[in-house]
Protein backbone atom coordinates (compact mmCIF):
# COMPACT_ATOMS: atom_id res chain seq x y z
CA UNK A 1 0.00 0.00 0.00
CA UNK A 2 1.26 3.50 -0.73
CA UNK A 3 0.10 7.05 -1.25
CA UNK A 4 0.05 10.39 0.50
CA UNK A 5 -0.33 10.19 4.29
CA UNK A 6 -2.46 12.95 5.81
CA UNK A 7 -1.60 14.85 8.98
CA UNK A 8 -3.57 17.01 11.39
CA UNK A 9 -2.04 18.76 14.37
CA UNK A 10 -4.09 17.88 17.45
CA UNK A 11 -4.62 21.03 19.52
CA UNK A 12 -6.97 22.59 22.03
CA UNK A 13 -7.67 26.18 23.06
CA UNK A 14 -6.30 25.65 26.55
CA UNK A 15 -3.14 25.35 28.67
CA UNK A 16 -3.04 21.60 29.30
CA UNK A 17 -4.39 19.47 26.47
CA UNK A 18 -2.96 15.91 26.44
CA UNK A 19 0.59 15.95 27.85
CA UNK A 20 -0.16 17.07 31.38
CA UNK A 21 2.42 19.09 33.25
CA UNK A 22 4.40 20.14 30.20
CA UNK A 23 2.99 23.67 30.33
CA UNK A 24 5.79 24.25 32.89
CA UNK A 25 8.54 23.44 30.38
CA UNK A 26 10.52 26.61 29.56
CA UNK A 27 10.31 25.89 25.81
CA UNK A 28 6.53 25.49 25.86
CA UNK A 29 4.27 28.34 24.74
CA UNK A 30 0.95 26.90 25.87
CA UNK A 31 0.46 29.72 28.37
CA UNK A 32 0.06 31.98 25.30
CA UNK A 33 -3.17 30.26 24.24
CA UNK A 34 -5.08 33.48 24.99
CA UNK A 35 -2.91 35.47 22.55
CA UNK A 36 -4.18 35.70 18.99
CA UNK A 37 -0.58 35.60 17.77
CA UNK A 38 -0.15 32.13 19.27
CA UNK A 39 -2.79 30.85 16.87
CA UNK A 40 -1.76 32.84 13.82
CA UNK A 41 1.90 31.85 14.25
CA UNK A 42 0.85 28.20 14.60
CA UNK A 43 -1.32 28.41 11.48
CA UNK A 44 1.53 29.85 9.40
CA UNK A 45 3.86 27.10 10.66
CA UNK A 46 1.43 24.31 9.78
CA UNK A 47 0.75 25.71 6.33
CA UNK A 48 4.49 25.94 5.72
CA UNK A 49 4.63 22.27 6.77
CA UNK A 50 1.78 21.38 4.36
CA UNK A 51 -0.45 19.93 7.10
CA UNK A 52 -4.01 19.03 6.19
CA UNK A 53 -5.57 20.74 9.19
CA UNK A 54 -5.35 21.78 12.79
CA UNK A 55 -7.81 19.66 14.79
CA UNK A 56 -9.17 21.56 17.80
CA UNK A 57 -10.54 19.46 20.65
CA UNK A 58 -12.95 20.82 23.27
CA UNK A 59 -14.81 20.02 26.48
CA UNK A 60 -17.72 21.87 28.08
CA UNK A 61 -17.17 20.72 31.65
CA UNK A 62 -14.41 20.09 34.17
CA UNK A 63 -12.94 16.67 34.98
CA UNK A 64 -14.43 16.17 38.44
CA UNK A 65 -14.45 12.46 39.28
CA UNK A 66 -10.83 12.06 40.41
CA UNK A 67 -10.54 12.39 44.19
CA UNK A 68 -14.19 13.41 44.28
CA UNK A 69 -13.99 16.82 42.65
CA UNK A 70 -12.47 19.14 40.02
CA UNK A 71 -9.67 20.49 42.23
CA UNK A 72 -6.89 18.36 40.68
CA UNK A 73 -7.92 19.25 37.14
CA UNK A 74 -8.11 22.94 38.02
CA UNK A 75 -4.77 22.96 39.81
CA UNK A 76 -2.96 20.99 37.09
CA UNK A 77 -4.63 22.85 34.16
CA UNK A 78 -6.19 19.65 32.80
CA UNK A 79 -8.22 21.17 29.93
CA UNK A 80 -9.24 24.01 32.23
CA UNK A 81 -9.00 26.94 31.66
CA UNK A 82 -10.25 26.36 28.12
CA UNK A 83 -11.59 28.79 25.54
CA UNK A 84 -13.94 28.32 22.58
CA UNK A 85 -12.27 26.51 19.66
CA UNK A 86 -14.41 28.10 16.94
CA UNK A 87 -13.38 31.67 17.64
CA UNK A 88 -9.69 31.25 16.75
CA UNK A 89 -10.46 29.85 13.30
CA UNK A 90 -11.12 33.12 11.41
CA UNK A 91 -7.81 34.56 12.62
CA UNK A 92 -5.89 31.46 11.49
CA UNK A 93 -7.76 31.43 8.19
CA UNK A 94 -6.83 35.06 7.56
CA UNK A 95 -3.08 34.29 7.57
CA UNK A 96 -3.31 31.07 5.50
CA UNK A 97 -4.70 29.96 2.16
CA UNK A 98 -4.83 26.16 2.41
CA UNK A 99 -4.72 24.90 6.01
CA UNK A 100 -7.93 23.23 7.17
CA UNK A 101 -9.65 23.65 10.54
CA UNK A 102 -11.51 20.85 12.34
CA UNK A 103 -13.44 22.18 15.33
CA UNK A 104 -15.18 20.21 18.07
CA UNK A 105 -18.79 20.94 19.00
CA UNK A 106 -21.28 18.83 20.96
CA UNK A 107 -24.73 17.76 19.73
CA UNK A 108 -26.04 17.22 23.26
CA UNK A 109 -26.50 20.60 24.90
CA UNK A 110 -26.98 23.37 22.35
CA UNK A 111 -29.68 23.43 19.65
CA UNK A 112 -28.84 22.76 15.99
CA UNK A 113 -30.16 25.89 14.27
CA UNK A 114 -27.55 28.30 15.66
CA UNK A 115 -24.75 25.77 15.15
CA UNK A 116 -25.72 25.40 11.48
CA UNK A 117 -25.21 29.13 10.95
CA UNK A 118 -21.88 29.16 12.85
CA UNK A 119 -20.45 26.40 10.69
CA UNK A 120 -21.75 27.91 7.45
CA UNK A 121 -20.16 31.20 8.46
CA UNK A 122 -16.81 29.49 9.09
CA UNK A 123 -17.06 27.62 5.80
CA UNK A 124 -17.60 30.93 4.00
CA UNK A 125 -14.78 32.72 5.82
CA UNK A 126 -12.31 29.88 5.24
CA UNK A 127 -13.43 29.34 1.63
CA UNK A 128 -14.35 25.73 2.33
CA UNK A 129 -11.57 24.70 4.72
CA UNK A 130 -13.61 23.82 7.79
CA UNK A 131 -14.61 20.53 9.41
CA UNK A 132 -16.80 19.72 12.40
CA UNK A 133 -15.72 17.10 14.92
CA UNK A 134 -19.08 15.71 16.06
CA UNK A 135 -19.11 14.75 19.76
CA UNK A 136 -21.88 13.92 22.20
CA UNK A 137 -19.96 14.97 25.38
CA UNK A 138 -19.22 12.56 28.19
CA UNK A 139 -18.42 14.68 31.26
CA UNK A 140 -20.88 14.78 34.16
CA UNK A 141 -19.92 18.42 34.74
CA UNK A 142 -20.89 19.29 31.18
CA UNK A 143 -24.47 18.16 31.79
CA UNK A 144 -24.69 20.19 34.99
CA UNK A 145 -23.42 23.28 33.16
CA UNK A 146 -26.43 23.06 30.85
CA UNK A 147 -29.10 22.57 33.52
CA UNK A 148 -29.20 18.77 33.87
CA UNK A 149 -28.70 16.72 37.03
CA UNK A 150 -26.34 14.26 35.37
CA UNK A 151 -25.01 13.29 31.96
CA UNK A 152 -27.51 11.89 29.47
CA UNK A 153 -27.29 8.13 28.99
CA UNK A 154 -24.79 7.09 26.29
CA UNK A 155 -27.14 5.62 23.67
CA UNK A 156 -29.66 8.43 24.12
CA UNK A 157 -26.90 10.96 23.40
CA UNK A 158 -26.32 9.21 20.07
CA UNK A 159 -30.06 9.15 19.37
CA UNK A 160 -30.09 12.92 19.86
CA UNK A 161 -27.02 13.24 17.65
CA UNK A 162 -28.72 11.34 14.82
CA UNK A 163 -31.65 13.75 14.79
CA UNK A 164 -29.32 16.73 15.25
CA UNK A 165 -27.53 15.79 12.04
CA UNK A 166 -30.81 15.22 10.23
CA UNK A 167 -31.79 18.80 11.06
CA UNK A 168 -28.42 20.13 9.92
CA UNK A 169 -28.50 18.21 6.64
CA UNK A 170 -31.91 19.71 5.92
CA UNK A 171 -30.57 23.20 6.64
CA UNK A 172 -27.21 22.88 4.89
CA UNK A 173 -28.19 20.73 1.92
CA UNK A 174 -31.88 21.30 1.32
CA UNK A 175 -32.97 24.73 2.51
CA UNK A 176 -31.29 26.75 -0.26
CA UNK A 177 -31.20 25.59 -3.86
CA UNK A 178 -27.89 25.90 -5.70
CA UNK A 179 -29.06 28.85 -7.81
CA UNK A 180 -31.10 30.62 -5.11
CA UNK A 181 -28.69 33.56 -4.95
CA UNK A 182 -29.02 35.58 -8.16
CA UNK A 183 -27.58 39.02 -7.18
CA UNK A 184 -29.66 40.82 -9.81
CA UNK A 185 -28.92 44.51 -9.29
CA UNK A 186 -31.28 45.65 -12.03
CA UNK A 187 -34.33 43.96 -10.45
CA UNK A 188 -33.13 44.50 -6.85
CA UNK A 189 -33.26 40.76 -6.22
CA UNK A 190 -30.43 39.25 -4.20
CA UNK A 191 -32.10 35.89 -3.57
CA UNK A 192 -34.99 34.20 -5.37
CA UNK A 193 -37.54 33.48 -2.58
CA UNK A 194 -38.97 30.55 -4.52
CA UNK A 195 -35.67 28.74 -4.13
CA UNK A 196 -35.28 29.12 -0.35
CA UNK A 197 -37.27 26.63 1.68
CA UNK A 198 -38.41 26.10 5.23
CA UNK A 199 -37.47 22.68 6.56
CA UNK A 200 -40.37 22.36 9.05
CA UNK A 201 -38.60 19.64 11.02
CA UNK A 202 -40.66 18.13 13.83
CA UNK A 203 -38.94 15.29 15.65
CA UNK A 204 -38.59 13.68 19.04
CA UNK A 205 -35.89 16.08 20.23
CA UNK A 206 -36.03 19.13 17.94
CA UNK A 207 -38.53 21.41 16.20
CA UNK A 208 -36.91 23.64 13.59
CA UNK A 209 -38.85 25.63 11.00
CA UNK A 210 -36.09 27.18 8.92
CA UNK A 211 -35.12 28.34 6.44
CA UNK A 212 -31.37 28.30 7.00
CA UNK A 213 -30.10 31.86 7.46
CA UNK A 214 -26.83 31.41 5.53
CA UNK A 215 -26.56 31.19 1.78
CA UNK A 216 -24.79 28.04 0.51
CA UNK A 217 -21.12 27.91 1.51
CA UNK A 218 -18.37 26.24 -0.57
CA UNK A 219 -18.79 22.82 1.07
CA UNK A 220 -22.36 23.38 2.34
CA UNK A 221 -21.91 20.62 4.93
CA UNK A 222 -18.49 20.91 6.60
CA UNK A 223 -16.27 17.85 6.52
CA UNK A 224 -17.56 15.59 9.30
CA UNK A 225 -15.07 14.23 11.84
CA UNK A 226 -16.05 11.80 14.58
CA UNK A 227 -14.20 10.04 17.41
CA UNK A 228 -16.58 7.52 19.00
CA UNK A 229 -14.99 4.28 20.23
CA UNK A 230 -18.09 2.46 21.51
CA UNK A 231 -20.16 0.17 19.31
CA UNK A 232 -22.80 2.89 18.97
CA UNK A 233 -20.07 5.42 18.21
CA UNK A 234 -18.61 3.25 15.46
CA UNK A 235 -22.04 2.81 13.94
CA UNK A 236 -22.56 6.57 14.01
CA UNK A 237 -19.19 7.07 12.30
CA UNK A 238 -20.03 4.50 9.65
CA UNK A 239 -23.21 6.42 8.79
CA UNK A 240 -21.93 9.98 8.95
CA UNK A 241 -18.18 10.48 9.39
CA UNK A 242 -15.79 11.44 6.62
CA UNK A 243 -12.80 11.41 8.97
CA UNK A 244 -12.53 9.20 12.06
CA UNK A 245 -10.20 9.98 14.96
CA UNK A 246 -9.55 6.53 16.38
CA UNK A 247 -7.85 5.62 19.66
CA UNK A 248 -7.25 1.89 19.34
CA UNK A 249 -4.65 0.55 21.80
CA UNK A 250 -2.45 -1.39 19.34
CA UNK A 251 -1.67 -1.81 15.66
CA UNK A 252 -3.84 -4.93 15.52
CA UNK A 253 -6.75 -3.24 17.29
CA UNK A 254 -6.47 -0.23 14.98
CA UNK A 255 -6.50 -2.44 11.89
CA UNK A 256 -9.61 -4.25 13.20
CA UNK A 257 -11.39 -0.99 14.09
CA UNK A 258 -10.77 0.48 10.65
CA UNK A 259 -11.92 -2.68 8.88
CA UNK A 260 -15.02 -2.86 11.09
CA UNK A 261 -16.01 0.76 10.41
CA UNK A 262 -15.52 0.29 6.69
CA UNK A 263 -17.72 -2.83 6.73
CA UNK A 264 -20.43 -0.92 8.54
CA UNK A 265 -20.18 2.00 6.10
CA UNK A 266 -20.61 -0.36 3.15
CA UNK A 267 -23.66 -1.89 4.85
CA UNK A 268 -25.17 1.61 4.98
CA UNK A 269 -24.60 2.00 1.25
CA UNK A 270 -21.64 4.33 1.56
CA UNK A 271 -18.32 4.06 -0.26
CA UNK A 272 -15.88 3.00 2.51
CA UNK A 273 -13.04 4.81 0.74
CA UNK A 274 -14.83 8.07 1.58
CA UNK A 275 -13.75 7.73 5.23
CA UNK A 276 -10.27 8.90 6.30
CA UNK A 277 -8.88 7.35 9.50
CA UNK A 278 -6.65 9.41 11.81
CA UNK A 279 -5.13 7.55 14.79
CA UNK A 280 -3.32 9.72 17.31
CA UNK A 281 0.46 9.90 16.93
CA UNK A 282 3.07 10.85 19.51
CA UNK A 283 6.43 11.60 17.88
CA UNK A 284 9.76 12.64 19.36
CA UNK A 285 12.41 13.14 16.69
CA UNK A 286 15.98 14.42 16.47
CA UNK A 287 19.05 13.97 14.26
CA UNK A 288 20.56 11.27 16.52
CA UNK A 289 19.22 8.73 18.99
CA UNK A 290 21.33 10.35 21.71
CA UNK A 291 19.50 13.64 21.15
CA UNK A 292 16.18 11.79 21.20
CA UNK A 293 16.98 10.17 24.54
CA UNK A 294 17.95 13.55 25.98
CA UNK A 295 14.64 15.05 24.78
CA UNK A 296 12.63 12.26 26.41
CA UNK A 297 14.47 12.66 29.73
CA UNK A 298 13.93 16.42 29.62
CA UNK A 299 10.21 16.10 28.90
CA UNK A 300 9.70 13.38 31.50
CA UNK A 301 10.95 15.69 34.26
CA UNK A 302 7.97 17.97 33.65
CA UNK A 303 5.24 15.30 33.27
CA UNK A 304 2.62 15.28 36.06
CA UNK A 305 0.92 11.90 36.64
CA UNK A 306 -1.77 13.63 38.71
CA UNK A 307 -2.93 15.44 35.60
CA UNK A 308 -3.26 12.19 33.65
CA UNK A 309 -5.16 10.59 36.54
CA UNK A 310 -7.54 13.55 36.69
CA UNK A 311 -8.38 13.22 32.99
CA UNK A 312 -8.61 9.42 33.10
CA UNK A 313 -10.53 9.77 36.35
CA UNK A 314 -13.45 11.09 34.33
CA UNK A 315 -14.27 7.39 34.13
CA UNK A 316 -12.50 5.50 36.94
CA UNK A 317 -11.10 7.16 40.07
CA UNK A 318 -8.06 4.91 40.39
CA UNK A 319 -6.97 6.65 43.57
CA UNK A 320 -10.00 5.16 45.34
CA UNK A 321 -9.04 1.49 44.82
CA UNK A 322 -6.56 -0.95 46.35
CA UNK A 323 -3.39 -0.87 44.18
CA UNK A 324 -3.42 -4.68 43.94
CA UNK A 325 -7.01 -4.94 42.72
CA UNK A 326 -7.59 -6.19 39.17
CA UNK A 327 -9.13 -3.67 36.79
CA UNK A 328 -11.35 -6.45 35.39
CA UNK A 329 -12.78 -7.10 38.87
CA UNK A 330 -13.59 -3.41 39.28
CA UNK A 331 -15.32 -3.38 35.91
CA UNK A 332 -17.25 -6.60 36.69
CA UNK A 333 -18.73 -5.09 39.85
CA UNK A 334 -19.94 -2.06 37.94
CA UNK A 335 -19.81 1.48 39.23
CA UNK A 336 -19.78 5.16 38.43
CA UNK A 337 -17.45 5.03 35.44
CA UNK A 338 -17.72 5.28 31.69
CA UNK A 339 -17.03 2.85 28.88
CA UNK A 340 -14.66 5.48 27.48
CA UNK A 341 -12.35 4.98 30.48
CA UNK A 342 -12.84 1.22 30.83
CA UNK A 343 -12.25 0.18 27.24
CA UNK A 344 -8.46 0.75 27.06
CA UNK A 345 -7.90 -0.97 30.44
CA UNK A 346 -10.25 -3.96 30.59
CA UNK A 347 -9.38 -7.48 29.47
CA UNK A 348 -5.62 -7.05 29.85
CA UNK A 349 -5.06 -8.55 33.32
CA UNK A 350 -3.96 -5.19 34.70
CA UNK A 351 -3.96 -4.27 38.37
CA UNK A 352 -4.58 -0.75 39.60
CA UNK A 353 -0.88 -0.57 40.48
CA UNK A 354 0.10 -1.38 36.88
CA UNK A 355 -1.97 1.49 35.53
CA UNK A 356 -0.76 3.95 38.18
CA UNK A 357 2.88 3.03 37.49
CA UNK A 358 2.49 3.70 33.75
CA UNK A 359 0.54 6.95 34.05
CA UNK A 360 2.43 9.86 32.59
CA UNK A 361 5.28 7.75 31.29
CA UNK A 362 6.23 9.01 27.86
CA UNK A 363 5.40 6.39 25.26
CA UNK A 364 2.55 4.85 27.28
CA UNK A 365 -0.25 7.26 26.47
CA UNK A 366 -1.52 6.32 23.01
CA UNK A 367 -1.63 3.70 20.29
CA UNK A 368 1.17 5.14 18.16
CA UNK A 369 4.40 6.36 19.73
CA UNK A 370 7.78 6.58 18.08
CA UNK A 371 10.98 8.26 19.23
CA UNK A 372 14.00 8.26 16.97
CA UNK A 373 15.76 9.67 13.96
CA UNK A 374 13.76 10.97 10.98
CA UNK A 375 14.34 7.68 9.15
CA UNK A 376 13.04 5.58 12.04
CA UNK A 377 10.01 7.83 12.55
CA UNK A 378 9.16 7.68 8.83
CA UNK A 379 9.58 3.89 8.87
CA UNK A 380 7.04 3.52 11.68
CA UNK A 381 4.58 5.97 10.14
CA UNK A 382 4.66 4.03 6.89
CA UNK A 383 4.36 0.67 8.66
CA UNK A 384 1.33 1.70 10.68
CA UNK A 385 -0.38 3.33 7.71
CA UNK A 386 0.25 0.39 5.41
CA UNK A 387 -0.58 -2.38 7.90
CA UNK A 388 -3.72 -0.84 9.38
CA UNK A 389 -5.31 1.05 6.50
CA UNK A 390 -4.98 4.36 8.36
CA UNK A 391 -4.93 7.23 5.90
CA UNK A 392 -3.40 9.76 8.24
CA UNK A 393 -2.44 10.71 11.80
CA UNK A 394 -3.32 13.30 14.41
CA UNK A 395 0.03 14.56 15.68
CA UNK A 396 -0.05 15.32 19.40
CA UNK A 397 2.13 18.08 20.80
CA UNK A 398 4.55 17.74 23.69
CA UNK A 399 5.80 21.30 23.28
CA UNK A 400 4.02 24.04 21.37
CA UNK A 401 5.16 24.73 18.75
CA UNK A 402 8.35 22.67 19.19
CA UNK A 403 6.78 19.31 18.40
CA UNK A 404 5.32 20.59 15.12
CA UNK A 405 8.56 22.40 14.26
CA UNK A 406 10.63 19.23 14.75
CA UNK A 407 8.20 17.19 12.68
CA UNK A 408 8.15 19.71 9.84
CA UNK A 409 11.93 20.18 9.82
CA UNK A 410 12.94 16.52 10.12
CA UNK A 411 10.11 14.10 9.31
CA UNK A 412 8.27 15.88 6.50
CA UNK A 413 11.32 15.98 4.16
CA UNK A 414 11.95 12.28 4.80
CA UNK A 415 8.35 11.34 3.99
CA UNK A 416 8.47 13.57 0.91
CA UNK A 417 11.57 11.73 -0.32
CA UNK A 418 9.59 8.51 -0.03
CA UNK A 419 6.60 9.93 -1.89
CA UNK A 420 4.35 9.72 1.19
CA UNK A 421 3.82 13.42 1.91
CA UNK A 422 2.55 16.18 -0.35
CA UNK A 423 5.03 18.68 -1.77
CA UNK A 424 2.39 21.35 -2.39
CA UNK A 425 -1.32 22.03 -1.88
CA UNK A 426 -3.36 21.29 -5.00
CA UNK A 427 -6.94 21.65 -3.77
CA UNK A 428 -9.33 24.40 -2.81
CA UNK A 429 -11.50 22.81 -0.09
CA UNK A 430 -10.73 20.49 2.80
CA UNK A 431 -13.10 17.82 1.48
CA UNK A 432 -11.29 17.78 -1.87
CA UNK A 433 -8.01 17.27 -0.02
CA UNK A 434 -9.39 14.13 1.60
CA UNK A 435 -11.61 12.74 -1.17
CA UNK A 436 -10.11 14.05 -4.40
CA UNK A 437 -10.32 16.95 -6.87
CA UNK A 438 -13.80 18.33 -7.44
CA UNK A 439 -15.41 16.62 -4.43
CA UNK A 440 -16.20 19.74 -2.45
CA UNK A 441 -19.67 18.56 -1.35
CA UNK A 442 -20.92 15.42 0.37
CA UNK A 443 -20.63 12.36 -1.93
CA UNK A 444 -23.91 11.04 -3.31
CA UNK A 445 -23.79 7.93 -1.09
CA UNK A 446 -23.61 10.00 2.12
CA UNK A 447 -26.97 10.22 3.97
CA UNK A 448 -26.77 14.01 4.06
CA UNK A 449 -26.87 14.14 0.26
CA UNK A 450 -30.39 12.71 0.30
CA UNK A 451 -31.70 16.08 1.53
CA UNK A 452 -30.61 17.99 -1.59
CA UNK A 453 -33.26 19.47 -3.85
CA UNK A 454 -33.27 18.78 -7.58
Give an account of the 3D structure.
With 454 residues, the chain is of the alpha/beta class. The protein contains 16 helices and 13 strands. The protein has helices at residues 36-48, 71-76, 89-94, 112-125, 140-145, 154-174, 231-240, 251-267, 289-300, 305-312, 327-333, 339-342, 352-358, 374-388, 402-417, 430-435, and strands at 6-12, 53-57, 100-106, 130-135, 181-184, 189-191, 201-202, 207-208, 223-226, 243-246, 276-285, 369-372, 392-396. The radius of gyration is 22 Å and the shape is globular.
Write the layout of secondary structure elements.
Layout: E1 6-12, H1 36-48, E2 53-57, H2 71-76, H3 89-94, E3 100-106, H4 112-125, E4 130-135, H5 140-145, H6 154-174, E5 181-184, E6 189-191, E7 201-202, E8 207-208, E9 223-226, H7 231-240, E10 243-246, H8 251-267, E11 276-285, H9 289-300, H10 305-312, H11 327-333, H12 339-342, H13 352-358, E12 369-372, H14 374-388, E13 392-396, H15 402-417, H16 430-435
Parallel strand pairs: 1-2, 1-13, 2-3, 3-4, 4-9, 9-10, 10-11, 11-12, 11-13
Antiparallel strand pairs: 5-6, 7-8
Helix pairs in contact: 4-6, 7-8, 14-15
Protein name: FMN-dependent oxidoreductase (Nitrilotriacetate monooxygenase family)
Keywords: Flavoprotein, FMN, Monooxygenase, Oxidoreductase
GO molecular function: monooxygenase activity
